[in-house]
């Protein structure tokens, strides 16, 4: 994969020649309702600008000389850097892609959005001669911004698939979070920073959350303390950003941190356009619980991609026409949910098991279009698997996932393929390295891999009736059964498999999954609340984050699942699509109930 990435480094980066010096998004290029929403959002921002002397002094990139509006981007060919590109263009800058080490040395300003695992990234940098050029550039105190892995690579080494030697510019070793203290690993979500003085590019963050997604971190020490511009506490205190002169790097993702993150990029790109720091309001104190909007996307009977919603996975209306339930257009709805405050947007291509993903161009275009204006994490699922096409050409699940990442996805969700992989692993106890979970997590890191579990309850008289993990139910079954096990399904819930949700969750964590999306067929579309018994079972069994899904019908259901289980996030679809409960109302309710959320 490192060799493939090195080849992609010089050939697959998008051309920087397309027009990109735009200070605003053209409303004519957006769906009508999203355009109206953005006009309203723009009016709100204009009102803020009028009331804030500090912001009136901002300079747009389009007013700069042409050479000053160009950003050099180091994209080594792995992961989703489309969102970074979109954020840079959103701020009015053009992009020049690095093709040779000389491009680094000649850059006026350089952004390195490192994505994936430490070892493959260093391998590509060394083989292409970029590592030496990077060190020379940074040592001359040239304007530099590293993002996520782009921060970690500055350190001496990492224990990820290693030890692996880094660029060695900052003293310290990048190590994995310790999950033994009860903290979920990966560290995924919106967290608070402790910002040092003179942080410069962080000056507008204040007490607001920024988005993290990583399993490894660098710790503060006497040797590197002069570099540290902010820290974050998650089990222990780790370095969330560094600064020395014109050199900056952040562990969080500014391109995925909404308006707060865009302020970080803006201050890096236009450092002389801002007066001294002014306090910013905010409530962030720790890792927030996430509220995720989910869009089930499929083709309707006319062939158009629409957002739909199932009732126990049945997405067709109960009418004579029996048409696919149509709740809106995916790009339009995703944009609205971003404006409404969704912490993440998840797309599930529910026709994915019938269509080859690399040929699923409409879904890829949905991702590309969404990522242009939505600056929070995007997850996509459906059809992530190995495949041999009609000509006999073989595509690995890694190649399939890579296409989604290049189109704008930050995480991919694996469903049926994860079930088959877990079944085999539980029988053989051997990690072959060939499963989709192992392939993708090895290159992109386990934080990029979500496993979606679709179980249904099977009621029991006694817990010993099956070989799988059974639990005592809070509410008895239809015939008074006190116990149940949760049978996993594949193919959109149509086929039951001989594996329980508990066994599957434990197995996929061992194989390399970084997060679990936990659905429940029995609760889907019912609006009576999440399956607390199931979510507590799984979230107590694994050390990776668990997303609760299926059944939300009121804001109170979100606070219930966060108070009664160890879920890190809660996902809903229908109540948001039908505007029964706005995202803002859910978050306001959670905050008033004492649950940390991003406001």
From TrEMBL:
Keyword Hydrolase assigned: yes
Region: PRFAR binding, residue numbers: 415-416, 452-454, 524-525, 550-551, 573-574
EC class of the enzyme, as a word: hydrolase
This enzyme's EC code(s): 3.5.1.2
Alphabetized UniProt keyword annotations: Amino-acid biosynthesis, Chloroplast, Glutamine amidotransferase, Histidine biosynthesis, Hydrolase, Lyase, Multifunctional enzyme, Plastid
Active site residues of this protein: 148, 253, 255, 296, 454
Disordered as annotated region, ranges: 1-24
Any one GO biological process: L-histidine biosynthetic process
UniProt-annotated binding residues for substrate: 383, 519
GO molecular function, one term: lyase activity
GO cellular component, one term: chloroplast
Family of this protein: Belongs to the HisA/HisF family.
Protein name according to UniProt: Imidazole glycerol phosphate synthase hisHF
Organism in which the protein naturally occurs: Linum tenue
